[in-house]
Design brief:
- There is one protein chain.
- This protein is α+β, with helices and mostly antiparallel strands.
- The chain has four domains: 6-215, Heat Shock Protein 90, CATH 3.30.565.10; 222-350, Ribosomal Protein S5, domain 2, CATH 3.30.230; 391-470, Rossmann fold; 483-525 and 543-610, Four Helix Bundle (Hemerythrin (Met), subunit A), CATH 1.20.120.790.
- It has a nine-stranded mixed β-sheet, with helices on one face. Strands 10-11-14-12-13 form a five-stranded mixed β-sheet, sandwiched between helices. A five-stranded mixed β-sheet has the order 15-17-16-19-18.
- The chain is elongated, with a radius of gyration of 33 Å.
- Bound molecules: adenosine-5'-diphosphate (ADP) and magnesium ion (MG).
- The site of magnesium ion has 4 residues, from α2.
Length: 612
């Protein structure tokens, strides 16, 4: 045994918790530790291959880039050896003692959020290296960095909160992970069991993978093969391997071209949108390769920000191998790839929607936010992207979606604008006063429910030269009416109501739009919808965002007729009714910020009513 001094370390508190969970977990698929350790070995080899492009000073240069797994049922161990980059002392402490990396971090965050003990999340996220403690009594990591002067080190832990690092002997580059199995997990020293597991998870490792000396994979890159020769199963398997996930991709796009840029592209849309599930902003999952050499696993600028939900591979032989990642990210070549791939992907989505609107609808329900973000922020692709937008509409049932194109084709003679209405729920919108007119005229209105939808509508402004207008706006083309046609009596009523309401209302008018409601509030600020105002107010507190509201009243409604006589009889009480009428209109329009404030007045009205 070595006489070198042994350094003792404590795991970071978060790691200790994580390991506790992992060790005590009843999680049934403990076998995923194999996938995790193989994928670490593969990552280490990818890194070395990349370094080899530029750095000629590599220790043990002649060692093959491969992964060796050996089992010993006698010792009850399974060992993973790679000739990759290895780790320095500092890296050992950081990488295998803290939660610095993204995978276990999101596992951890999901656990904190969900308040669960994490068992059922292990499979969803993978917990990286620490998953070995699901099966191990102890784990030993023997490693030597690729630099000529690197140390040979041994890391050891029994999963009991501490690990130790000792200087070792030996001279091979890379990392060997020896997992000493527990009594109840001995099966993982059986080569037949391991072979099946490797076939299941690690068939796509791009380096020779050997089990007890025998290679068990082909290392052909899937994305370079011809489409017709790849089965759905292979695609799915590659996707899961690449993303460390268990789901089935909902879409895939595989194409290649030689001119003007050489590229082989394989993209996947996952089953679920992790951001929507609350796991924070995801990193781009499309890796950049050049002739099968991984250049960058998560390159910036290869695709637009909004496309960050995509997974897959872009391989371009035009990428110079000796370029630094930073220079590469800003290169004109990457810009060209970005533009070509994005256009192609948007076309692909258009086609998918045409082929199977229902599954596109499902995609849109989960990933629509990214499309909207693209429309709002990606100037280059806005035109193309807006064709991908979908909306609920007053003419369709709940959940049925229409595009702008669908809307245009359903427009009647003389309609020159596209109408939409923003609200928290379909029912509110359908029953609200703003729909009365559109329903009576059989004009379609798009329903939108999220602030970003309003933002998208205002950003677009128009579609095919048709103005996009909020249905609660005073100046909609179809409902022009002049106040002049009101009678003297009506004018006097409006004037008086305006006096009662004062500053709060821009003006009060007789309406020809209302059918059932006594009154309704409209937005008379042509520059901004009411919803946008609320957003602005939240962004810059204190900014003067007083609503410019028009109250329109329905002269045919009994309440308005009664108001005329009530005003004569008891002006003070009539004024209270006007106030309440106005608040009701604000509430129905979704303009009211603090509905609680009207409870006192309602009680006063009830008091009067109940007095008989
Ligand atoms: P991840 O692979 O997602 O980064 P892991 O927990 O699997 O997380 O591994 C943590 C880190 O430990 C890796 O990022 C890597 O830096 C280092 N590491 C693990 N295994 C190896 C290995 N075989 N060779 C070199 N470094 C490794
Ligand atoms: Mg890993």
């Amino acid at each position: 045994m070595t006489k070198e001094k042994t350094e003792k370390h404590e795991f970071q508190a978060e790691v200790r918790r994580l390991m506790d969970i992992v060790i005590n977990s009843l999680y049934t698929d403990k076998e995923i530790f194999i996938r995790e350790l193989v994928s670490n070995a593969s990552d280490a080899l990818e890194k070395l291959r990349y370094i080899q492009l530029t750095d000629k000073e590599i220790y043990d240069e002649a060692l093959p880039l491969e992964i060796e797994i050996s089992t010993s049922s006698e010792d009850s161990t399974i060992t993973f050896t790679d000739y990759g980059v290895g780790m320095s002392r500092k890296e050992l402490v950081e990488n295998l003692g803290t939660i610095a990396r993204s995978g276990s971090r999101s596992f951890f965050e999901a656990m904190e959020k969900g308040g669960t003990e994490g068992g059922d999340l292990i499979g969803q996220f993978g917990v990286g290296f620490y998953s070995s403690f699901m099966v191990a009594d102890s784990v030993e990591v023997v490693t030597r960095g690729y630099r000529k002067n690197s140390e040979h080190l041994i890391w050891r832990s029994g999963g009991d909160g501490v690990f130790e690092i000792t200087k070792g002997k030996g001279h091979r580059r890379g990392t060997k992970v020896v997992v000493s199995l527990r009594e109840d997990t001995k099966e993982y020293s059986d080569p037949d069991v391991i072979r099946d597991i490797l076939r299941k998870y690690s068939a796509f490792v791009p380096f020779p993978l050997k089990l007890n000396g025998k290679q068990i994979n082909t290392t052909e890159a899937v994305w370079l093969r011809s489409k017709s020769e790849i089965t759905d199963q292979e695609y799915g398997g590659f996707y899961r391997f690449q993303t460390n996930s268990f789901d089935e991709p909902r879409y895939r796009l595989h194409f290649s071209s030689e001119a003007p840029i050489d590229m082989n592209v394989l993209l996947f849309v996952p089953e679920d949108n992790m951001e929507r599930l609350g796991f924070g902003r995801v990193d781009s999952g499309v890796s950049l390769y050049s002739r099968r050499v991984l250049i960058d696993a998560s390159p910036k600028n290869l695709l637009p920000e909004w496309a960050r939900f995509l997974k897959g591979v872009v391989d371009s032989a035009d990428i110079p191998l000796n370029i630094s990642r930073e220079t590469m990210q800003d290169s004109s070549l990457v810009k060209k790839l970005n533009s070509a791939i994005t256009k192609r992907f948007i076309k692909f989505l258009e086609q998918s929607s045409a082929d199977d609107p229902q599954s596109y609808g499902d995609f849109y329900g989960k990933f629509g936010f990214f499309i909207k973000e693209g429309v709002a922020s990606d100037f280059e692709h806005r035109e193309q992207l807006r064709g991908l937008l979908r909306f609920e509409s007053s003419r369709r049932g709940e959940g049925e979606l229409v595009s702008f194109e669908d809307y245009l084709s359903g427009m009647g003679e003389g309609q020159e604008e596209i109408y939409y209405l923003f609200g928290s729920a379909r029912e509110t919108l359908e029953n609200g006063p703003h729909m009365e007119f559109f329903r009576s005229e059989d004009i379609e209105v798009l329903f939108i429910y999220e602030p970003i939808d309003e933002f998208v509508m205002s950003t677009l402004g128009e579609y095919e030269e048709k103005k996009i207008v909020s249905a609660d706006s005073v100046d909609i083309g179809v409902a022009d009416r002049d106040a002049e046609s009101s009678s003297e009596e009506e004018k006097s009523l409006c004037g008086w109501m305006k006096e009662v309401l004062g500053e709060r209302v821009g003006d009060v008018r007789m309406s020809r739009r209302l059918v059932e409601s006594p009154a309704a509030a409209f937005n008379s600020d042509s520059t901004m919808t009411q919803g946008m105002k609320r957003i602005m107010k939240n962004i810059s507190a204190g900014a003067d965002m007083r609503s410019v509201v028009r109250l329109e009243i329905n002269g045919d409604h009994a309440l308005i007729k009664n108001l005329v006589s009530m005003r004569e009889k008891d002006g003070e009480f009539a004024a209270i009714i006007v106030e309440q009428l106005f608040d009701n209109a604000l509430l129905a329009a979704g303009y009211m910020e603090n509905p609680g404030s009207m409870v006192g007045r309602i009680n006063r009205l009830l008091e009067r009513l109940s007095s008989g």
